[in-house]
Amino acid sequence: MATIDLKTREISPGAARESAPQVPDAVIKVDLDERAFAFPQGKQILQLHILAYRPQLVKIEATYAYNEARASHELFELPADDARELVRKLVETVYRATSSQVISRSTTLSITVVTNGYLLQMGDHESMREVFLSTGCIWRVCNGLARAVDFISPIASN
Prior knowledge:
- By secondary structure, this protein is an alpha+beta fold.
- It has one domain (23-152): Secreted effector protein pipB2 fold (2-Layer Sandwich).
- The chain contains three helices and eleven strands.
- The strands form two sheets. Strands 3, 4, 5, 6, 7, 8, 9, 10 and 11 form a nine-stranded antiparallel β-sheet that branches. A two-stranded antiparallel ribbon has the order 1-2.
């Protein structure tokens, strides 16, 4: 579909395609339990969708149990290197039962061990997004993230 710039009266046939949402190369769906919540939305999360875009992007979206307010489904967006570091730190956090952080030029993410599970916090204080995950579903989340990272940028083995 062509678009017309009303000031210059120029027709640009490719502009509509550039603004269209990109289709992910892979979608990994991770079922959660009744103890998964997202804030500031204040909603229970039924399922995480980990969208892998080649060559270098991972998006994490949520399917909510209820969403009358029509809150955004997007939770996090990470470059491939930060997503790989998140997987490593998340597995390390679960095994050691200690909190950790992923800090890069584009990402600030903390993983906190809490009494009944894990708390993932991303963003600065003004736009903080939090996801509470129970101990029952954390390994499924680790595996889903690892699959997405391996899909978009596999590391060659020996």
